[in-house]
Each structure stands twice: as C-alpha cells, then as structure tokens.
TrEMBL record, chain A:
The keyword Transferase applies. Belongs to the aspartate/ornithine carbamoyltransferase superfamily. ATCase family. It comes from freshwater metagenome. GO terms for molecular function: amino acid binding; aspartate carbamoyltransferase activity. One of its GO terms (biological process) is amino acid metabolic process. Coiled coil: none annotated. It is an enzyme of class 2 (transferase). Keywords: Pyrimidine biosynthesis, Transferase. Its EC number is 2.1.3.2. This is aspartate carbamoyltransferase. Catalyzes the condensation of carbamoyl phosphate and aspartate to form carbamoyl aspartate and inorganic phosphate, the committed step in the de novo pyrimidine nucleotide biosynthesis pathway. PROSITE patterns: CARBAMOYLTRANSFERASE. Pathway: Pyrimidine metabolism; UMP biosynthesis via de novo pathway; (S)-dihydroorotate from bicarbonate: step 2/3. SUPFAM superfamilies: Aspartate/ornithine carbamoyltransferase.
Automatic annotation (TrEMBL), chain B:
It comes from freshwater metagenome. Gene3D superfamilies: Metal-dependent hydrolases, Urease, subunit C, domain 1. The keyword DNA-binding does not apply. The lineage of its organism: unclassified sequences, metagenomes, ecological metagenomes. This is Unannotated protein. GO terms for molecular function: allantoinase activity; dihydroorotase activity; metal ion binding.
From TrEMBL, chain C:
InterPro entries: PRTase-like, PRTase_dom, PyrR, PyrR_bifunctional. It comes from freshwater metagenome. The keyword Transcription regulation applies. Belongs to the purine/pyrimidine phosphoribosyltransferase family. PyrR subfamily. Residues 9-145 form the Phosphoribosyltransferase domain. This is Unannotated protein. Keywords: Transcription, Transcription regulation.
Length: 315, 435, 178
C-alpha cells in the first residue's frame, strides 16, 4: 500500500494486515505508552482543511508514539482559509519534505486528488473527505469489534452490525459498510428513508427503516451523529421525532443481546441519537474506540511509512 | 480576388462522388470532373463533404472571461472542428441581455472572420429569472437575435417562462431552456445514482430535468410557441419529448457529443474535467440519447463548448466549475457514436449538425443543401483517418477536454466559410492576414 | 551448499547451552527466556523445555519482537510486526536471556536491547545464539554459543527448524551461486 484513500480500493489482506499490526502494537502499548523509535526522522503533516480536533489529535498521538515529526496544518489561520488551492498546498508540503500527509477535507475525493496528481510524492492518508470515506475510522471500528467479538485474529465472519442514522451524509457509514462486508460481517443500515442515498441497493448490506426490528439480532450497533443542520434541510420533522424512532435509549438497549457492543464515532449528541445512560453504560465501547483509534492509526502509519518507499524496489 | 478551389472526388452526403468548385464565396460547379488551371486543387478523394456545421450552444466567454476563451479563439476552435456558425451563449459578463452586448459579440465574430457568430440573448435580465430582458430590442438589433436562453440557469418561474414563450412569437423566436429544477439540484455535483452514492457527491437527479421538460412542453402547447430543450441527458427526457412531438407540440431538442459518449462512471476519478452541467449520466441514458438522435426525436447535436481556465479544474471536484470543451471534437464523437455504430448516415449527420440547427436558429446562408449557387460553407472530413486528442494542441484557449489521449475517428481536413478556406489540411488559417 | 549442523548437532548444542545458562545463573529461579521471532522464539521454547526437564519446574519463556526498533526499516520492504509476549512474571529484576538463531552484525541484538527497555528493567541481560558467524558491526558478544561458524560475507547461513521448515539443520551456501 502506498496510500490509504478509501476502503473501496483495499483488499482483505491489506485490511487484516493493518488490524494484525494494530493488535501487536496494542500488546506493546498495553504496558506503558512509551515512545517507539520506528518512524524517527519521518515527517507526517496533518493537513486539516476542515475542523476535527478528535481525528487530528488521534493521528498526532499515533505519529508521535512512533517518533515521527508532526506538523499540524489546520484550516484556521492557514493559507487554506485564505483560498490557497489544494495544488499549491500540496506543492508546499512537497517542498517541506513530508513523508506522509494526513488529509481531512470537506470535499469528497480531495485525498484521491492529492494522491493522483504529481503534486507531491509522499503517502496520502485520508482522514475523512466530504461525505465519501473515513477509512481509518472504519479500521478502528473493525478493530474494536474484532477485539471484543472476533475469534482472535482473522475476519469478522458471522457477526451482524447495525449502523444507525444519517447514512446519506456519513463517510463513516460508507467506509464501515465496505470494510465490515469485506471482513465477512453482515451489515444492516437503519435510517429514515430521507437519510439513505439513492443507489444504496447496490451496497453490500441490507437496509431497514425500523430500528426496533433490527436491534435484537445485532452483535454491535453503531450510532451516527446527526448534524443539527439536517433539521433545516427537511430530512425529518424535528429532533424529538428523530430521537423517538432512531435514538438509542435505555429502553431500546434492553432488546439488545447481552454481549452486543454500543459504538459511536463521536462527537455524540447526547439526548438526540444516543441517551446519556446508554453512552455511559457498561456495553458502550465509545471511549475504547478513541484509544483504539491511536493504535490503529499507528498501524496505518507503520504499514505506509516504516518500509522502504515502494518505488525504490525491494530486496 | 479570393482564391478559387476545387475539391476533387469528394463524397457528397448522398454518397455521390463529385468535384466541387468554389469561387467568390459560392459553389459554382458540381460535376464528374472539373480541372481548370485557375483553381487550387484539393485532393479530397475518399473524404466526405458536409454543409458547414452549425452549433446552437457555444460558450465563447467574451465579454468577461477572456482568460478562458475569446470570440476569436472560440471561432478558430469552431473552424478546426468544421463549424461555420456558432451561437454565443448569453452568460457572459456583462450578461447578453441588451442590444448593446449582443451587437458587441456579433461584431467580434465578424472581425474574427472564421465563421458566423450568432449571439443568443438572455431570457431574463441578468439571468436572474426575475424579469424579462430586452428581448425585442435584441431581436431588432444588428445581431438579429432569434434564440433566447438563460443557459446555466433554468427559467424556473412558470409564469415567466410562459410570458417569454409568448413574447418571442412576435418575431418567430425560440426559447432554449436549460431544464434543471433548481430546488432538486441544490449543491448537485453529478448524476444522482449508484455512483454518486458511492463517491459521496451530491446528486443531480434525472427528474430535475424531466419535470421541467414536461412543464415546458405543456406551456409551449398552451401558447403555441417554439420551445427548444438544451442538452437533453436523460432517457426520461427523451420520452417526454417524443410524447410532445406526437402531440404536435412545437418543440426541438439538442444533445451534446459528450452525453452521447461519456458516463458518470468517469466521476470515480474525481477528476473535474468530467464535471459538467447537466451531468454525465448512465450508459442506459447514453443509449437512449443515441436512439433519439437517430430517430430525430432529438433534432440536433450542440456542443455546449464550455472553456474554463486551468485553475478552475485543477482542484477538488466540488470546487471545480462545470463544463467541457466540445467544438474541436464534436464531429469525431458523432462519427464514433452514431455513424460508425450504423445508427446514422452521413446525410443524417448533415441534418443534425447543420440543416436542423440552422433552421431552428433561422440562420441565413447556413445549413443549406450542397448545390450550385449556394454560399460555400462546407466541411471536409476524412472518416477513415484517426487522430489522438491532445489538450495542449487545442485551438481553444482552454484545455479542459475530457477526451485527452483518446483516439477518435474522422479528421476534419478542410473548412470553408463563405468560400474562404479557414482550415487547410487540418491547419487553421490566419484569416486576419488574408483580409 | 554445505550442511554444517545436523539435527543431532542442533539438539546437542541446545542441551549444552541450557546447562551453561543454568550453571551461570545458579539455577532457574530468576530466569526469563525471550526468543526473538521467528526462529529465535522456537529455539527459546526448546531451551525452556530442556531446562524444565533438568530443573523439574517450568521456566518463564516469551518472545520479543524487535521490528519497531530496527535501524534498517527504510532499507527494506515493510515487514509485519511479530508478537511480543512477555511472561506473567515480567522482566523487572530478572535475569533475561535473549535467544536468537544467528548472531551476525549485532544490530538485531542492539534493537532487542532497545525493545527490552520498553518492557522493563531486568537485573541482567544475556545472549544465547545457535550460530555465531562473526562480522560484528557493534560491540556485542554472545554469552552462550551453539557453534562458531567463521564465514565469508559472500556466504549465507540458513537455519531450518522443524517447527517452521519441516526439518532441523544449518547450512552454509554461497550467495552468488547460480
């Protein structure tokens, strides 16, 4: 792998390779979180053209634990907010000597544009592009599910995962559907019809409008954040009604199987898509997702950066 | 004294092989053999001659965006593609909504001298869709505007559309509608479907086009006026037009070369060179459009030639502007998609790309049968030759062709505009120097 | 190609090393064995088993992966990380014996010492190898050696173990053999 742009262009071996690497890294990390010298002398640039403190600090922590030099390049106050083009930004990063660029961008396909053009030579890691994909989030979600419910290493065969909420605008959902299906899990998307894209029948998953009919059968339920602005865009009548049909509250939680996991990529709207009791319950692995995020991102950086550059040839 | 030419052994649209002599701007002879010393002999054995192509949909960008294209560079691109008439869209800056602007564009076309530039007037003032522009004075101007369009924007207000259709009846004008329901296409980036869902790009549903076409053919029927539908892209749109024509409604329609060939699969590259409005659709739509053009349900091919500077395309998809170049590749794309597939004869190509558009626009001395005594607006194409598209070699000022690197059939070798060779051996001539 | 250690030779060498380790450390009570993946890990298990038979008690035995500490990562294609499994007892204050198949430049062992530093602070660290082929690039030496095999840089030493390769043997071969 040279870049991590989307789950769509990933195969099972790539995915399992990253998850296995993360598993080994988590064993080391379970002791003391010490710094590893692995990426000493490498430069990782966090290019965040869209605000996301959580993902940025996760990638930053991952890079720093592997001893890479980290440069944060955020939208606010940077040349991006002054209208600099993606091309000029990329060429600047090339001149700085970035070995990898972690890019978060509001435009779908921005990471692929960065990788496809000859503007820079480093690895490109998609940290969320528009409403397209968020592959590192899907990998950390799969890692979390595998750790709790998987049969050691390997895939997620036989598991059933529900993803609930604004599928239409969710890059997390897109990446998760593809990755979970790739790893052999069954995926059911649950949302009001307005928040499902046209053409979803071609996705490797099933779709339901009825949360309650799905809940008793799943091994993990992944709640998606509902953006406040969706309410003004006519997707559903109001927050109360959304919450009534698609929110996960303690009443609904009762119908889950005992070992089922509750997940959320964050940041949560407590009281809207998830109630506080559920978010803080014993079966919620939401904070664990955050710590697994660092480990999985270390694995991604390791796989992309630790070896010789791919174009140099192998021994 | 202008140069006299004779096209040796060229194949006419009806298949006959003849020598065509051109003198003083007109066709002076069509015969089995014509070889006087006074004429420059052009060996066109094996090539085909068609009436000069007429485009009803061209963005020449002048005035306002001369960094993307000018009337002169667009004219040269047109000549290279075999055109002898272009129709300059109204979405310039300032907008072509007054006699002053359309006359300026018209005169720039004449000064360039490569082909006729017929300005299209805006339907509404500033293309804002609020009030009618000075349609009458544009029609009465030197530019003699007959086609009115807010292209780029849809005339969405049904009352305004009705009034516009009624108003142009006075002088036999036509409203060319850009059929796009704006509410259904807020922030739209590409065809809505399986691929837009996968790519996370906001969808432009087919119904946004079809709903406007349906409304407007009914309005046209009500007020008995002429309606032209710009760049039809959907199988559903075709069906509505078919229905309207069966009812005798006075509607014509165009399809672009790119919608006859390309599909929304190309968006998977996220390369904005494939970003165009209306968007590339599915292969089902492409085949429906080809059928419709072949049957005559869609009357004409129009390029929607839309030049943009490099920086408007060298960026993220959603930041990029809509549009692609079309003039220099149009005839080759039509040969590839319609002639080589046996869907159309060359005679039908002459109709769809010359006779019919000239008739819709009411253009004088354009789109005429190739007969002795008519103005020599002609294009010669060698259908057996292939060429490779190179964006760095376009005559257009812009480089945003979606066909870069593609090998296409059919090379335009010569173009004659009013008897003058604007293209000789595929090389665009310097008209200014001659005059 | 030349077989320099047969299955029996390997078995005898490991038995001898096991005895030497026990002797040097006055028994097994404070010992932890850590094999370096992949072949070192299997050798460590064998040594632990031999010792267990001698001592009549189990010997803490684990693996220590050095991949993340290598100084030649950028020179080779990406490698997968192997398991690091530290026994329950930990290594704090223990006498740790690192076990590997071949000692060559010494860089692997340098990386292993770094990796060990992440895990804890042993009382002593010792090194046991099946083969020492010389050509050290760092000031590192083995405490326990199965066999010294002076070799030229043109040659390569290949260790095969039943657990991975289906048989036990050590061969020496010329690299540029056609």
């Amino acid at each position: 792998m040279k870049h991590l742009l989307s789950i769509e262009d990933m195969n099972v071996q790539d995915a399992i390779g990253i998850l296995d690497t993360a598993t080994e890294l988590s064993r080391i990390n379970d002791g003391q979180m010490k710094k590893l010298p692995t990426l000493r002398g490498r430069t990782v640039v966090n290019l965040f053209a869209e605000d996301s403190t959580r993902t940025r600090i996760s990638f930053e922590a991952a890079a720093k634990r592997l001893s890479a030099d980290v440069i944060n390049f955020s939208a606010k106050g940077s040349s991006i907010s002054k209208g600099e083009s993606l091309k000029d930004t990329a060429m600047t990063l090339q001149a700085i000597g970035a070995d990898a660029v972690v890019i978060r961008h509001s435009a779908s396909g921005a990471a692929q544009r960065l990788a496809d053009n000859q503007w820079m030579s480093g690895a490109v890691i998609n940290a969320g592009d528009g409403t397209h994909e968020h592959p590192s989030q899907a990998l950390l979600d799969a890692f979390t599910i595998r750790k709790h419910l998987g049969k050691g290493s390997g895939d997620l065969q036989g598991l059933h995962v529900a993803i609930v909420g604004d599928i239409l605008h969710s890059r997390v959902a897109r990446s998760n559907v593809l990755l979970l299906a790739l790893l052999g899990a069954k995926v059911t998307l649950v949302a009001p019809p307005t928040l499902l894209p046209i053409g979803i029948d071609k996705w490797p998953c099933t779709v339901s409008y009825d949360f309650d009919s799905v809940l008793p059968y799943v091994d993990a339920v992944m709640m998606l954040r509902v953006q406040q602005e969706r309410m003004t865009e006519l997707f559903f009548p109001n927050a109360r009604e959304y919450s009534r049909y698609y929110g996960l509250n303690s009443e609904r939680m009762k119908s889950l199987k005992p070992a089922s996991l509750i997940m959320h990529p964050g940041p949560m709207n407590r009281g809207l898509e998830i109630s506080a009791e559920v978010a803080d319950s014993a079966r919620s692995v939401i904070t664990e997702q955050v710590s697994n995020g660092v480990t999985v991102r270390m694995a991604i950086l390791y796989v992309l950066l630790a070896g010789a550059p791919l174009d140099v040839g192998s021994i | 004294m202008s140069t006299k030419y004779v096209l040796k052994s060229v194949v006419l649209p009806n298949g006959d092989k003849r020598d065509i002599a051109i003198e003083d701007g007109v066709i002076t002879s069509i015969s089995q053999s014509f070889t006087p010393d006074s004429h420059v002999v052009i060996n066109t054995d094996g090539s085909r001659v068609l009436p000069g192509l007429v485009d009803l949909h061209t963005h020449l960008r002048e005035p306002g965006r001369e960094d993307a294209e000018t009337v002169l560079t667009g004219s040269r691109a047109g000549a290279k593609g075999g055109f002898t008439a272009l129709s300059a869209m109204a979405n310039t800056s300032p907008v072509a909504d007054t006699a002053g602007v359309v006359e300026q564009v018209y005169r720039l076309g004449q000064a360039a001298g490569y082909l006729d530039v017929f300005p299209i007037g805006a339907v509404t003032k500033g293309l804002l869709g609020e009030s009618l522009s000075e349609i009458g004075s544009m029609a009465d101007s030197v530019a003699r505007v007959r086609i009115f369009s807010d292209d780029g924007n849809c005339v969405f207000d049904p009352l305004l559309m009705r009034r516009a259709l009624e108003y142009v009846k006075k002088f036999g004008g036509v409203i060319a509608q850009h059929a796009q329901d704006p509410r259904l296409t807020i922030g739209a980036q590409m065809n809505e479907g399986e691929i837009s869902a996968r790519l996370g790009l906001k969808g432009w549903p087919a119904v946004a086009e079809e709903a406007i076409i349906a409304r407007d053919v009914l309005l046209s029927d009500l007020v008995k006026s002429r309606l032209h539908i710009c760049h039809v892209t959907t199988a559903g749109g075709v069906e509505i037009i078919r229905w309207a024509k069966q009812r005798g409604i006075n509607v014509t329609a165009e399809v672009t070369p790119h919608h006859l060939l390309l599909t929304d699969e190309l968006a998977t590259t996220y390369d904005p060179v494939y970003k165009v409005n209306p968007p590339l659709r599915t292969s089902d739509d492409v085949h429906a459009l080809r059928e419709a053009l072949s049957e005559g349900i869609i009357d004409i091919v129009a390029t929607d030639h839309a030049p943009h500077p490099v920086e408007s395309k060298e960026c993220e998809w959603q930041e990029a502007t809509f549009g692609m170049l079309g003039l220099e590749t149009a005839l080759s794309i039509v040969q590839k998609t319609m002639v080589d597939t046996k869907l159309m004869s060359w005679g039908q190509v002459a109709d769809r790309m010359s006779f019919a558009p000239a008739r819709i626009g009411g253009y004088v001395n354009q789109g005429q049968e190739i007969t002795v005594g008519t103005v020599a607006n002609l294009v010669v194409i060698d259908p057996a030759k292939n060429w490779q598209v190179d964006r760095d070699l376009t005559m257009s000022k812009a480089t945003n062709t979606p066909y870069h690197g593609l090998t296409l059939p059919g090379v335009v070798t010569h173009t004659f505009y009013k008897g003058q060779a604007t293209v000789i051996d595929s090389v665009v001539q310097e008209i200014g120097d001659v005059q | 190609m030349n077989v320099v250690l047969s299955a029996e030779d390997i078995s005898r060498a490991l038995t001898r090393i096991s005895h030497e380790i026990l002797e040097r450390n006055h028994g097994s009570s404070n010992l932890v064995l850590l094999g370096i993946p992949t072949r070192g890990a299997h050798l460590a298990l064998r040594v632990a088993e031999i010792m267990a038979n001698i001592e009549g008690t189990t010997i803490p035995c684990g693996t220590l992966d050095i991949t993340l500490h290598r100084d030649d990562l950028r020179l080779r294609p990406p490698r997968s990380i192997m398991p690091t499994l530290i026994p329950q007892s930990g290594i704090e204050g223990k006498d740790v014996v690192l076990i590997d198949d071949v000692l060559f430049s010494g860089r692997t062992i340098r990386s292993a010492l770094d990796a060990l530093g992440e895990v804890g602070r042993p009382k002593t660290v010792q090194l046991a190898v099946l083969v020492d082929r010389g050509h050290r690039e760092l000031p590192i030496k083995a405490d326990f050696v199965g066999k010294n095999l002076p070799s030229s840089l043109d040659q390569s030493i290949r260790v095969s173990l039943t657990e991975i390769d289906g048989r036990d043997e050590v061969v020496i071969e010329n690299r540029r053999q056609s």
